[in-house]
Amino acid sequence: MAPITSFWALYTRTLAKLTKQVNVVYIKRSIFLSRLPLFKKADGRLVKCGQFSSAAAKAESGDTFLKWFLLLIPATTFGLGTWQVKRRQWKLELINELTKLTTAEPIPLPLDPQELNGLEYRRVKVRGKYDHSKELYVLPRSPVDPEKEAREAGRLSSSGETGANVITPFHCSDLGITILVNRGYVPRQKIRPETRMKGQVEDEVNVVGVVRLTEVRKPFVPNNDVERNRWHFRDLEAMASVTGAEPIFIDADFASTIPGGPIGGQTRVTLRNEHMQYIITWYGLCAATSYMWYAKFIKRIKL
């Protein structure tokens, strides 16, 4: 919102300054033209005085240019507001599509990498055993709460506890491969496995999860520290290399949570949707600047 506020302040100052300059031109023209004679004597004849005709024409030309130039401001803000309307519709459709994918009936996990690349956020099901000796920790993380995240979208910081997501190799007995499963969230004091032994099951379990693809490190996100087992983003190739698993990753859903273990359902599908406030802001600026333009150049009200 800061750039929009700065834009509004700049427009107001510019219009006030230019208005002052234009008013000065009008004042000079009215003063000088009212005091100078319209005719003068030349060889006994009366001749019209045209000294100020060119100056008046230039001033009129400058007024016309200023008038149409400043009209670009409300036109531009109207265009930006309309663009945000389209962006909001696109974002709502995307959120709806992601919601459908994460709530659809799970399908068996396919082994074809090309097929997996087109199944991000799709629910799949597997059966097998966890290898707790090779846990990875993605941190810092906070527990997923879609309603809370929607309220805090756009904030520089968020409130609440932080901990880690526990990534565990999972040997699929039905497929004969080992994949990576994000078992879910644990608070900071429960990151060490010995603090949650009840959830470290050795038996075969069924897991339903959401397919996730590798991530590219975002700006300001630290690099993964493989030696210290501190991961900050999802690098499937590196994670697979460390654990000996295939570069296949799923987020276990909440129903797959094992009592005493990490809390599943940590897939973030809440997308920032701040387009409505931008729509209101841009259309509001359009209305305000349109009125100022109308008042100055149509009604000739001194601003």
Descriptive report:
It is a single chain. The protein has 303 residues and is of the alpha+beta class. 42% of the residues lie in helices and 19% in strands. It has helices at residues 2-35, 53-70, 72-103, 113-117, 146-151, 236-243, 275-297; strands at residues 39-42, 45-48, 107-108, 123-130, 136-141, 163-172, 177-187, 205-212, 249-252. The chain has a five-stranded mixed barrel. A two-stranded antiparallel ribbon has the order 1-2. Strand 3 (107-108), helix 4 and strand 4 form a beta-alpha-beta unit. The longest helix has 34 residues, at 2-35. It starts with a helix and ends in a 6-residue tail after the last helix. Residues 22-36, 38-43 and 149-159 have low confidence and may be disordered.
